[in-house]
Amino acid sequence: MKVSAIIVAGGRGERAGGALPKQYQNLLGRSVLAWSLEAFAAAGVDDVIVVCASEHEALARTAARGHRLRFAAGGATRTASVRAGLALSLDADIVLIHDAARPGLSAKMIQTLIAEINDGAVAVAPALPIADTLLRTNAAGAVDAELDRRNVVRVQTPQAFHGDVLRGAYKRAGSDSVFTDDLSVVRAAGGEAKLIAGDPNLMKITHPEDVAMVANLLNGERIVCVGNGIDAHRFGPGDFVTLCGVRIAHDKGLIGHSDADAGWHALVDAILGALGEGDIGAHFPPSDARWKGADSERFLRHAAHLAEQAGARILHVDVTLVCEHPKIGPHRESMRTRTAEVLGLPLKRVSVKATTTERMGFLGRGEGLAAQATPTLDRPV
Ligand code: MG
Predict the structure, then answer these.
(1) Which of 23, 27, 112, 126 is the least crowded, having the fewest Cβ atoms under 10 Å away?
(2) From ligand 1's centre to the CA of 233, what distance in Å?
């Protein structure tokens, strides 16, 4: 008996905000789409068809790393997209159709749905009761009736179908017809729908704030971690220094294996510290010729990437530069801007400041320059 899953990832997801469509956004260390793929794999469903916008296929392939999939090009509507997926699953005895925007899918839910079809149902979906009062409004938005919520449910996905029944129902529906789900297509063709208990974790990501809500549902416990990093570099011959990504003319240079950007080195070390990921030397050994003269932007992007992979969010960073010269004040805003750009943070969550040691010690004598950084991260326990 062949089971195929069709995951509808065709939406461009404008409503959910973010640079990427919602199904490819990061959710606790993996893409929203990957959560559903892992559930299907865990449930033993090995034929999975992802229907996505053709221009997003590369994104979907990246999001699906490690999973074997087939792809279909999405249509103008959800109904057209499912139709495209069905065209690739003509021999499936059971077809499950799922929205990629519902990442809280469990293998148990998939197995329960398949068991219902094996027991003779033709169309099954999870559904939840409604706790809120339901009011009907008229075209002007005024309340005109109260609905009996006892007779109303919220229907989720995945929805499971007897393959022939679903394909027959799509054939009967006009090619331009539009439905909000597939149970409705089968019902329109006279098929009987069965509902089983839904799962609150299957909430659909629609609005920008939903990503954080789903993350809370799927991984309740998070902690705030504060990292700490310190770096120092010795002055040497040269006519500029690079600090927090900004090149500043100076009568000396900084000596280092890379570009000697002590500000960003301290910050990278501190982010690694908050993640428990060792130190900058372990990730970019000074013995490795690849990092000779390297732009420290690369190190900072690496630290930010590790944070993302770990499902962490950098909330705020504070960098303090310690030196008598060069004067940091005139360059402070450029340093904040560059750091905010690389970390993808709003400017107000990036602080760069400077101090001196009142001419005491090696910093006071101008032998070198030091930096300290303190980032705050929100991450899974
Ligand atoms: Mg350094």
Answers:
(1) 112
(2) 6
